[in-house]
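Task: fold both queries, return tokens.
Query 1:
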Amino acid sequence: MALASGVALFVSGSAAFRRALRIGTQPYRVTAAAVSLVASVVGLTVSVAAEIALLTVIVAAALVVEDRSRARGDVRPAADTVDA
């Protein structure tokens, strides 16, 4: 439970940091954080090794999808930011 929560907190913090720096909104990272919390069920029911593997796949998939969308130009800067 703590492992999945830690990964979710890290990925959420990363998304919030990128948003604060106006790098852009990161829906893939937020989605990965939410799915990471669900992965804790795998750790409780199957094994911790399976949870680690699943968390690795979740974070890697989010980064790959984000990279591909950035290459296509789909990721845009946050729209609700105020220029100083």
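Query 1 returned. Query 2:
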Amino acid sequence: MRSADFQLQDLQAEEELWLHRSKVRVAHTSCLFECHTLEDIKFEKWSEQRLDRLLVDYMLRKGMTESSIRLGKQKQIEAALLTFLSLTV
């Protein structure tokens, strides 16, 4: 019975983690809709963050794990980094 409880707790923790990641992604995407022009400061910040996420993803796919982790922490995109790490494993 205990192992079933631990398994359920593990599954619940994993589900909460995926839910958090999804919320971060939705928040990031919704910022794009707040931009009215390409010259908007919000769009510039959004596109910089998007580029950082793409770089982290690319670096992980090419095996540059340590560098991508450093970049993710430096740019404060740990949620995206955790998602990419879980997908590359």
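Both queries returned. Flag for query 2: The chain has a mean pLDDT of 80.
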